[in-house]
Amino acid sequence: MSAELAVVYAALILQDDNVEITSDKLQTLVKAAGIEVEPVWFSLYAKALAGQDLKALLLNVGAPGAGGAAAATGAAGAAASTEAAVEEAVEEKEESDDDMGFGK
């Protein structure tokens, strides 16, 4: 088992028992499981998960968020405006060639 996975499982256990996720508690659970993990992982995960509701995070995995929808809309709008600009540039070039007698 990887070190990161062991710490994640420990965090899930603590969350399930409604216990605050701290570096010391993560380390205690992982050591009880007999898995060797570098101490830095415990503090990293404890800081990252501080104040987070893991249950809500897990239930919302894959659910579209407002930020994702706005980004998708923005990207679609940017693509449409880029496409329109390219079409306009092509039309202008064709008109320019026709004006000089090259289009015939």
From TrEMBL:
Swiss-Prot/TrEMBL keywords: Ribonucleoprotein, Ribosomal protein
Gene3D superfamilies referenced in this protein's UniProt entry, alphabetically: 1.10.10.1410
Composition-biased stretches (Acidic residues): 85-104
Pfam families: Ribosomal_60s
Record carries keyword Ribosomal protein: yes
Gene Ontology CC entries for this record: ribosome
Keyword Ribosomal protein listed: yes
Region (Disordered): 83-104
InterPro entries: P1/P2_N_sf, Ribosomal_P1/P2
HAMAP family: Ribosomal_L12_arch
Similarity-based family: Belongs to the eukaryotic ribosomal protein P1/P2 family.
Record protein name field: 60S acidic ribosomal protein P1
Species whose genome carries this gene: Phycomyces blakesleeanus
Phylogenetic classification of the source organism: Eukaryota, Fungi, Fungi incertae sedis, Mucoromycota, Mucoromycotina
